[in-house]
Amino acid sequence: MLTFGKRASDVRGWLFVIAVALTCVAAGYLLRLAIDVLIHGQVPFVTFYPAVMAASLIAGIRSGILAVILSTPVAVMAFEAYPVMTTVIWLGLATVVAVGCGLAHELRIRLRYERDELARAKLKLELVIREQTHRAKNTFAILNALAQQSAQGALNIEEFRDRLIARIRALSSAYNLMSAVEGDNPVDLGQLTAAVLAPFSDTYAARLNVTPGPVASLAPSATIPIALCLHELATNAVKYGALSSPEGRVSVSWAEATPGVIVLKWIESGGPRVEIPRASGFGSRLINAALNGVPGGSAILKFHEQGVTCDLAFSKL
After folding, report:
1. Whole-prediction pTM value?
2. Residue 175, domain member (yes or no)
3. Do both 307 and 220 map to the same domain?
4. Are 218 and 186 in contact (CB under 8 A)?
């Protein structure tokens, strides 16, 4: 198909070259015919120089050379250009005109292409700058919220530091994946899950089971919320949940619950008996509110006696 398309394009290109050459030669002939009453057979090629020039400037060197070839017999037969030297001089000068104007045509096309490429590069750069500015603003807002919430309930500066650093690492994992893709391109859910849970997988590899589901792409707006949710779930599992005891297990998987909607399931089992908290902590509030505003986003966090479960839903791209 690609070869056929290229051949068709080449044919159209040659048809354009031939059509321009014929049109310019015909115009040169008619003009020479119109002024013949004034010059009476002299300088038979005089109007064909502009014809060659026009053909070269419009359609390139090929059209100009073709115009030279077509003009020669027309001028010789129609206007009695019999002296051989006159024809030889015409062929030499006309060829120079065709090549020179053809090169000018190619240069014009090249300059136009480079101008368009520069405009596209400028537009792309402006989009990247706007995107990076938007991400930077969001990052500062998120860091501010994380710092405030990490400080609440911290007994000392060390605990505050550890909380904040852990959450920033989760945020960094999401941004690393977002930086690896261009512009607003989607982020793969499997890669994001592996990156965020990597610090926990090293220690709890035998009890933290991630079962990859279908390939699912996240919009940039959903990447950071899901990363923070996974980090909070894993942190709470280590401190209070299934991963805090040797018998505990955590299962992470995702599937397409309804057409276009992916649900990521976090299921804890075998750990200490779970009690429903009397007040919501930062982790619970973050998880319940994280996907607000994300297309198709919702979070359902439940405290069952046998273990915590959480369903994170979002629309796939």
Report:
1. 0.53
2. yes
3. yes
4. yes
